[in-house]
Amino acid sequence: MKSLFLLLSVILFVSGCQKDSVSSADDGTLPGQFRLEIDPIRCAMPTTQRLLVDQTGSSTYRFTYDRFGVGTYQLAGVKAVKSSSTAYELSVDGQSIGQYAVDEISTLRGPRKGWVLMVRHRLGETDGLEFMGMKE
Mean pLDDT over residues 27-50, rounded? Predict the structure, then answer.
């Protein structure tokens, strides 16, 4: 029984110490569909469960979201400026609204590392957007 416990402990230790690399499902490009990830440490109050990003220009995008079934909204004219090899700063009309960057988030299934989209725009408004998620 002791040897079984020791073997299980070693397996858990080795699997827990493996380097968590960026998900290959997301290549770092912004267009696509994103799914909400609840990070209990950051305690964000999301306004939508899914967000669709369409490219409208060389570095401009349109976000489409549904505010949990209340109605479909769009945020157009989102600019993405690369700030490092693993981060983009997002803005609308010169105002920062978030970022798209490699980050580690704490989920109910454990920590995950990958490209994370974080957006906060016009909070408290009927079309406001607060979202943190990963590409599906």
Answer: 86
